[in-house]
Specification:
Length: 391
Amino acid sequence: MDVPGFWRLTAIGMASKIPAAMIGLSLLLLVGHDDSYGAAGLAVSALALGQGVTAPLRGRLIDRYAPCPVLLSFLAAYLVATPLLVLVVRGGGSVAPILALAATMGASAPPVAVMMRSAWHRSTSSGPANTGLLATAMALDSSMMGAALVMGPVLASWLSLAISPVMPFAAVALLTAAAVGLLINTPGPPSRPARPGHWLGPLTSAPLRRLLAADALFVMAVTAVDVVLPIYAQEYDAAEFTGLYLGVLSVSSVLGSLALGAVPQLLSRGPKISILLCAFAAGAGALTLVAGMSPLAALLVCPMAGLAIGCTFAALRATGGDLAPEGQVTETMSWLSSLDLVGGAMGAAVFAHIAAERGSRAALLLIPAVALLAAAITALPLSRTAESMNR
């Protein structure tokens, strides 16, 4: 790829994504081993809450001040909170300090993965033919996230169960520190610090607010698939298919991202996000139709639902970078990450309840509707030009 420092950026991106994919399961296994899985679930929720609520603020600090001291400050806090949490859990501490430390870990996590999207955006935004490069970079970033979501839990479970529940936290701390160290020593195109402005920051942009709403709905639909398919497998006495369903979805998502990255010109013009959301809705609809036949038929159709997932994530990130006000790309990407958490929490809660009350097929039937709603939100032009015309 014709981007300065491509391989270094790729290595940093992968090193930053694996810890994020490991930490939730690692915390669940650690607290569940020494306490209860009820307390473990609360700890994971506190971690996600701390991370999601503070992500835009951390992004704003990165945009507004020199990244190096801000990143090192977050890293120092993270490396203090992580061993403290492990010590409290292994020492039989009560739930309250465990939840407080889990939230602190989430709030202090260095936003390296988010910054990598900003770095890709800056590195590919110079020159006359940058649209294809940016689409390819975002597709690569999305495929790495998909790969990390497969590798991270496998590594976390192996370290925790085969060696010690403490070992995943050592690996997470080491990888996080390495990613921060590599990033702050990576030369790149200069970025202008954002000037203090409206307290809403990039949220003053109406097209960006619509993009964030579509992102939350899309993640809600994707999470719903991940939650409902295991319930469906249980209902049809095919629990052995659960891992296959989720694995096929992840692999097809990565392959779809790589395919888009190889031919970004296919969607370089037009309402690409709406097209991708409709493609995901069609795949989810096909999955719903064949689910009544057999678990095997559902497995064969899973790739249709998965292929558009990574592509859509990539398109959302690329468009978010384009809509970001000057000097506020990291905060914009942080808002997308926060909305990912909101959408994921909504998808898990709402669709698990529907599947439990009405059955898994009823829940599957609603997933394409959520994706189509997201497509409708992005059907209008998402650009700074469109925003200026509306004004």
